[in-house]
Amino acid sequence: MSDPADLPALAPGRLRFIGFAALIVAALLAGIGILSRSHNARALEKKVDANAVPTVTVIAPAAGDAKQDLVLPSTIEPWYDAPIYARVSGYLKKWYVDIGTKVKAGEVLADIETPELDQQLQQARADLANATAKEKLAEITHNRWQKMLLSTSVSKQEADEKASDFEAKKADVAAQRANVDRLQALAGFKRVVAPFDGTVTERKTDIGALINAGSSSGPELFRVADTRKLRIYLDVPQAFAERITPGMQARLQLPEQPDQTHPATVANTANAIDPTSRTLRVQLEADNADGKLIAGSYADVRFDLPAAHGTLQLPVTALIFRQHGLRVATVGSGDKVVMKPIKIGHDYGTKVDVVSGLVADDRVIDNPPDWLAQGDKVRPSQDDAVATATVATAGPHAGTESKP
Q1: The dihedral of CA 36, 42, 47, 51: what is its sign?
Q2: Quick check: 74 and 244 in contact, CB under 8 A?
Q3: How many domains does the chain have?
Q4: Residue 382 is part of a domain; what is its CATH number?
């Protein structure tokens, strides 16, 4: 084993070189570490700054539809619909029609037995005959007294009394004849007849049933409806009231016939807004010669309303409701938020018409966060083109109006 004392000693110059080299290496390693940490810090700072900028979805306002599809619920009613009540009391002798029977105006629906009325009519005729006989006697007496008055055989007072009695008997005959006519007219109601051409939709009586005259004493005997033409009633919201005019065409769609529509025409409107519902009552007419529409049905009425010229449309998700009014957030120069006040027209539920405050080139932020403010920096999403195209090509039925 060698003794350290026996190793050759290093020259002082060489030792200084080794020390200087070690110092340089240490300095380089320290510099590299400092540069690495600085680079990482800057990268982290950039990443934090980037993450602090919110990513937003930008859409473009869509052009307003050329036509607006307004859909409202309605009720289909017959052109004529009449409950048939008895005008005389008695017992139902026989009925001739049942539900679904087509009837003509004046056709007999049922016969009623009226023994009490028959007796009253018979008595009235007897009273008329009695009054007529008395009238004839009074007339003969009057004529005789007038002849005797010429020969002064009777006084003028007696002749006048006979003349007055004759006039009273004439009046009594007229009254008895009127009573007979009244009872004969009532007897005519023993035959229940159809008031117009139509279909029997209800029968609420049967043979032997006690019949009471009038509508307040029980249900109707029959119900007849004319469904060859129909009336359709609906309530239009006030926002659309001025755009519904007589003569306007519409389409009826029944839930059970989703692939079919039936034409209808606006016949008239109430010309007054209901203060309770803020709606306008509208009546339409529809031909039903083929019988495909059933009275009493529910139906959707579709109107093709012309849209306002130059309007833009936005989804309701882009609207911001704050203390300063209705606004939308747009992306301006430098990707900074610009708040724009707008005015909207018709609200279709999922979208609205914007009548002022926007231009077609504006980039509108959809679903803006609540904290978004004027001048905030944002980052538009990479899917902006898709979002814009989706909104711009929304079909005309995307905002149909439903029941108010």
Answers
A1: positive
A2: no
A3: 2
A4: 2.40.420.20
What does the alpha-carbon distance between residue 398 and residue 323 come to, in Å, rounded to a whole number? 29
Q: Are 85 and 195 in contact (CB under 8 A)?
A: no
pLDDT digits (tens, 9 = 90+) for 5-64: 554 555 666 777 777 777 787 777 777 777 777 766 666 566 555 556 788 889 988 876
Q: For residue 170, give the nearest of 135, 141, 136 by alpha carbon.
A: 135
CB atoms within 10 A of CB 82: 16
pLDDT digits over 251-303, tens only? 999 998 888 999 999 999 999 999 999 999 999 999 999 888 999 999 999 99
The tally of CA atoms less than 13 A away on the side-chain side of residue 274 is 13
Which residues touch 272 (CB under 8 Å, ≥6 apart)? 280, 281
Beta bridge partners of residue 223, listed in sequence order = 83, 202
Q: Say if 285 falls within a structural domain.
A: no
What's the residue count for the chain? 404
CA 261, CA 69: separation in Å to the nearest integer? 14
Report residue 318 as tokens: 């882009």
Interatomic CA distance for residues 218 and 12, integer angstroms:
136
Task: Domain of residue 366: give its range.
Answer: 55-66+310-392
The pLDDT score that the predictor gives to residue 390 is 44
Q: Residue 138: which CATH number?
A: 1.10.287.470
Token readout for 228 is 């060859």
Q: At what angle do helices 156-188 and 115-150 cross, to 10 degrees?
A: 160
Identify the three-state secondary structure at position 214.
coil
Q: Which of 111, 81, 88, 118 is nearest to 217 (CA)?
A: 88
Quick check: 242 and 70 in contact, CB under 8 A? no
CB 330 within 8 A of CB 338: yes
CB within 8 A of 303, min separation 6: which ones?
69, 70, 71, 72, 244, 248, 250
Specify the amino acid at residue 61: P
Which of 55, 57, 54, 56 has the alpha carbon at shortest distance from 389? 57
CB 314 within 8 A of CB 346: no
Could you count the other beta carbons within 10 Å of the beta carbon of residue 180?
19
Q: Which are the contacts of 215, defined by CB distance < 8 A and separation ≥ 6? A: 83, 85
